[in-house]
Specification:
two-stranded antiparallel ribbon; mainly alpha; 53% helix
Length: 351
């Protein structure tokens, strides 16, 4: 069987291959470490922002898969650096002869499969962020007033921190708060006629105002923050409703979070692609180095040329050989029938 993609490697190319693999393996470990940090950063961000994502959104699978893939890439880089360094010394290489084979299989099947899966998730999962944020933010804003309801006590604090940290207001804008009761019922006076009228005027029995929480206020505003009666043009004579950016954050949290998470996913996808390319180069180079040294008995500076290859034979020949060895070769041969004896010749009596 002819080997797949054979490559003749004299002495100097073998040494240069081992030295280049040592540098490439350390580069893979470095890029894999950076990918590991990007994955961890995205996972931490999702830990803070997970409240604003719908439970049906599976975006967290991306950093989790990327963490596993980058960890395998770092291990492959460190193992490749050790193997290529040991291959330059005939006394240090023998312990690696039994390790290289399993390491190549694990790096190709495990690491390569995880990297491909993570890159696929980086392309697919960001598309579901729009709907996930839409539902998650709607739920979070609806529970803003439930400061004494078990399970939703932290909703107000989380929404305020979100708006202050990311400079956003509401789901799509500050007017979203006009259709949500964000004032807790504990602060409403049931004897106040204005409160009663507002509650009775709403079919759902909610206390709605044309105001926003304090976390929507921009600290760069040239005047004290205006939070209430924002839709009344006569309530604030000096306030120009056509320029709300002077007072409130104009961008909705949906747009801000969508851009933030998509940028992180795009950066992580680019790092995964670079890691995949480097890991493929390292694994191919290690395979050529392994097969070349096997032909020399593990001595890289042996005289003469040797041949490196990816597989010892073509796929068709390998499958045919496996079929013959597993099926035809183990099939018992049919027993040969004994040859029939010729009938005895009758002697012709002489007359």
């Amino acid at each position: 069987m002819a080997p797949v993609l054979p490559l003749v490697l004299p002495l100097q190319p073998r040494i240069r291959l081992a030295q280049g693999l040592w540098l490439l393996s350390w580069l893979l470990a470095l890029v894999g470490g950076l990918t590991l940090l990007c994955s961890g950063h995205l996972l931490v961000q999702l830990g803070h922002l997970g409240t604003f994502l719908a439970p049906s959104c599976r975006f967290s699978a991306l950093p989790q898969t990327a963490l596993a893939a980058s960890a395998v890439a770092v291990g492959t880089g460190l193992g490749g650096a050790g193997a290529s360094r040991a291959s330059l010394d005939a006394a240090r290489y023998p312990p690696w002869r039994g390790v290289l084979g399993p390491m190549l299989v694990a790096g190709t099947v495990g690491g390569g499969g995880l990297l491909v899966l993570a890159m696929g998730l980086a392309l697919v999962l960001p598309g579901g962020l729009d709907e996930g944020l839409e539902k998650g933010l709607a739920t979070a804003l609806a529970h803003y007033k439930d400061t004494e309801v078990p399970g939703h006590c932290n909703a107000k604090r989380l929404v305020d921190e979100l708006q202050l940290r990311h400079h956003c207001c509401g789901r799509h804008g500050y007017k979203d708060w006009f259709g949500i009761q964000w004032v807790s019922s504990r602060y409403l006076d049931p004897s106040d006629q204005d409160v009663v009228d507002r509650i009775q005027s709403n079919v759902e029995g909610l206390y709605l105002t044309d105001g926003v929480p304090f976390s929507c206020c921009s600290p760069h505003s040239p005047r004290p923050c205006l939070q209430n009666q924002l839709s009344d043009p006569y309530a604030h004579p000096l306030f120009d409703p056509r320029q709300p950016n002077q007072n409130l954050w104009t961008r909705g949290c949906h747009t801000v979070l969508l851009e933030h998470l998509q940028d992180l996913a795009s950066t992580l996808g680019s790092m995964l692609a670079a890691t995949f390319l480097l890991q493929a180069l390292v694994l191919v180079g290690l395979r050529y180095l392994q097969t070349a040294l096997e032909g020399l008995g593990g001595v890289i500076d042996a005289e003469g040329e040797t041949q490196g290859y990816l597989f010892p034979g073509g796929l068709k020949d390998m499958l045919k050989a496996a079929w013959l060895q597993g099926g035809v070769a183990h099939r018992p041969a049919p027993e040969e029938a004994p040859p029939e004896e010729a009938p005895p010749k009758e002697e012709i009596s002489e007359a």
